[in-house]
Amino acid sequence: MGQLSSYFNGDASNMQGAVNKRFAFDKIQLHLHLDGCLRFSTILELANKKHMDLKGAKTVEDLKKVLVTYKPSSLADVLHAFDIFLPVIIGDLEAIERVAYEACEDQSRDGVIYFEARYSPHLLSTLSVSPSDVIEAVWRGFDRGQKDFGIIARQILCCIRGHDVWNKGLVEMAVEHKKHGVVAIDAAGCSHGADEQYEPSVVAAFLQAHELGIHRTVHAGESSGARAVIRGVEEMRTERVGHGYHLLADEDAYKKYALEQRLHLEACPLSSVMTAAVSPDLSEHPIKRWAKDGANFSISTDDPTCFDNSLASELSLASEKVGLIDYEIWQCQLNAAQSCFLDEPEKTKLVERIMNGRPPLN
Questions:
Q1: Is 352 a residue of the active site?
Q2: What percent of the chain has pLDDT over 90?
Q3: Whole-structure pTM value
Q4: Residue 361 lies in a domain
Q5: 60: how many CB neighbours lie within 10 A of its CB?
Q6: What is the separation of C-alpha 217 from the centre of its chain, rounded to a whole number of angstroms?
Q7: 360 inside domain
Q8: Secondary structure letter of residue 300 according to DSSP
Q9: How many domains in the chain?
Q10: Is the N-terminal amide bond of 345 cis, ω within 30° of 0?
Q11: Residue 258 is assigned to a structural domain of this protein
């Protein structure tokens, strides 16, 4: 496991140039947590300005030691990092706009032309700053970032496990803020509830979203088994699944949903190892089987603040450690374009752009 840590952590930015040259095609990222992709330098700057303690961290390297997961742990353990660094932006609309703008810049540097960033607007709100204020601040950052970096950015709003009050009004919020780039809802856990046992308020939100034509993705099959994925599809009407690795534990369900129905699976390779969702033996990672079977999946980073990774490092991981060939990695970009929640006619244009970058089959 130490070999994997040294291969990636701390080298993500240095890897971008080489990876972008090798994988010269345009890239798409569908599973990125906005509140999990803050720059370490930004966290430090905001904490110093607000006199907030970061477990004694004073430098970027100090902060990485506090926040980054370097060895396989558990999803709940990884999510504890959010309790440390999120307070630097909670309720600060200027800071929230800033990190949204910086996300656009960081994705652009990674060769990404379209990304969807998910987060809970309630987690970033306060008594004086509403969830709607947060969504609008994110959009201001995205709007500036799109213009400055030639990228397309969209928002996904998260239901959070264990927060019934938040979950009950989320769909109306998604409808209201469609004009601010909100394209879907999600359901995710937190450090106090990462078991994917979503309560009735979450299921009701997904069914309401289905009725209203709001897109849906759900975290499932990461910290629990295949049944969570099956429930996401059958009971919650989800269109995509975040992670979904453990769907392979039920071969019949895997064949039905992933292969026959083409359910899109949002894979995050390094994250999957560090949360102990999969074995550290990456040569046996689920995406290897998915690629062999022609399943509909993509590759994303999940939470760069927690893993010190980038899309460049994830693609290198998929190539060098898992064993995907370049064409299969490009296929992930096409899968992502075809499964993204972008409105038409922009979606068709995105698919065409990815198709134009198709590498030779090797």
A1: no
A2: 83
A3: 0.93
A4: no
A5: 13
A6: 11
A7: no
A8: -
A9: 1
A10: yes
A11: yes
